[in-house]
Amino acid sequence: MIAQRGVRRCGGPGLPENDGAPLTRAFMEQLFESLHDDLATLKQEITANIKDLKREVIDLGQRVDTVEQAQDAREEELDCHRREILTLQDKNQELQYQIEDLENRSHRSNIRIKGVLTQVIVGPLEDFVVRLFRQKAPALKEQNIVLNRTHRAGRPARAPGQAQDILTCLHYYKQREVITAADGLRRFKMSDPKGSIPRDSFI
Question: Which residues are bridge partners to 199 per DSSP?
Fold first, then answer.
């Protein structure tokens, strides 16, 4: 009974059946041969699985290398873009400084003539301003006074007796210095052509 129970336990797929017969040498040899075949088959399957696993690991490693290389390339590209952005920011800041400097220079070259009566202005506005500056600063009589722009400030005067400011920008800042330094109070004595309406104008 013990032998038969042991054989039943050993029985299974690929193993010879004993059918309750006593164990013999031939049966044991057949059993060992069957176990050997099963082990060989299992070994082949394990070896094949290991080979497949190795191939998968190698393939995965290659994919990881490809991803890392692509990531490195993107990091280098991002670093390049960052450097370009910083360079552009520096250039933009430099241009901003230049623009501010030019604007400041332009503003420093501006002169505002306040309270000019409309009947005082004879001829084109630019010619009137140039004549006024030559009268104000005799040192500029022999110089070419260049005005970048000249215009009336605010709304145009509607009546001859109304006063209006004039804005002008001199091309040469040194000429502005001469004009503003010609009178400590920076004042022009203005009047109409007939001299009947005196008017003060300030720069």
Answer: 190
pLDDT tens-place string over residues 143-153: 888 888 888 88
Question: Phi then psi for 45, rounded to 5 degrees?
Answer: -65, -45
Round to whole Å and give the CA distance between 136 and 15: 127
Enumerate residues 6+ apart whose C-beta is below 8 A from 147: 126, 129, 130, 168, 169, 170, 171
User: What is the secondary structure of 87-141 as a DSSP string?
Assistant: HHHHHHHHHHHHHHHHHHHHHHTEEEEEEEEGGG--S-HHHHHHHHHHHH-GGGT
Q: What are phi and psi of 154, to 5 degrees?
A: 75, -160
Has this prediction a pTM greater than 0.85?
A: no
* pLDDT score of 139 more than 80: yes
DSSP state of 154: S
- Which one, of 120, 184, 107, 185, lies nearest residue 148 by Cα? 107
Residue 196: half-sphere exposure toward Cβ, Cα within 13 Å: 3
Q: What angle do CA 20, 25, 29 make, to 5 degrees?
A: 100
List the end-to-end C-alpha distance of the chain, in Å, as a whole number.
132
The torsion of the CA quartet 126, 129, 135, 139, rounded to 10 degrees, works out to -70
